[in-house]
Fold this protein.
Amino acid sequence: MSGPARRALTEWVASRAQKAFDTASRETAIRRVGSRQQRPQAFPDNRSPLEAQPVEKVQFKDWSLVTPPVKHFSKPRMESLQEKMDALAAYSACDVSDALLKLEKVEPGTRPTAGFLEGIIPRRRVPVSYVAVGPAFTVQFQPKDTSISRSSKPVAPLSNIEPGKQWSDMVEKGTIVVVQQPPEQRNAAVGGIHALRVATLGAKGLLVDGKIRDLPEIKALGDEFKVWARDISIVGAGAECKPWAVQVSVEVSGLEVNPMDIIMLSSQDSAAIRIPRKLLDPVLEHLERRRSAENEIKKAVEGGMSVGDAFEKFR
């Protein structure tokens, strides 16, 4: 077959195939339209589903502008140690002692102390009554000559005061310095110079289970610095005792006092109290409940109720 004849045949076959394809396409389209017209229309207004049921616009909230809800408490929560000590200072020494009597465990065969540091009294008169509260900074003295003076009080096994360093230079600001002196000594453990240094470093007060001296110098330190001691002397500390350790457990009036235990000095009650650090929160909670109960008791007694009935009803 010549070239022109082959091309003519190819064109004829292609045209027949195109016609067949066009015919099939039209028939398929007609069938689809017919079947669509026979179906019930879900949207009679001929709108698409999205047009017939428009989606509402979602309003997203900007949470960065929303203030979180605030929890309200019957009383503010005290987070810092200073806040707790300030709250404790609002109560009397008797109130605190009652709380310790209730909360502090007493070993069988021992007497309850309720935190009272018996025999320790203020050695400076101030024009107004006060309550001073602070964490304990402890200082332990021991006899210079154990053959002459033997202390029954516990002593740290090793000294932590470096040679040539003074204990009063180690005191921390805001504390109440608690000094343990061996008993039955005639000398003072603390005099005017050490008291001045302690006050200069910002301590709230000085409590000595033993003797102090240089009272005129101590009185000149001002009303803000509280000085409490068991007794007074004119004999210097170097006569019988020496500083041995700081920030160790000491014994005061038969009670163990640890660093960071809370010391309360109440001039109006002439009482010094030790509150174990672990009991500070329970003591404050107990005091709050006790104050509310006592207010109700007083109102009831003023109204004519007997004390016994008031105790039974409100305690």
Observations:
- The longest strand covers residues 131-143.
- The two ends are 127 Å apart (CA to CA).
- Strands lie at 121-122, 131-143, 176-180, 205-212, 226-232, 241-246, 250-252, 255-257, 262-266, 271-275.
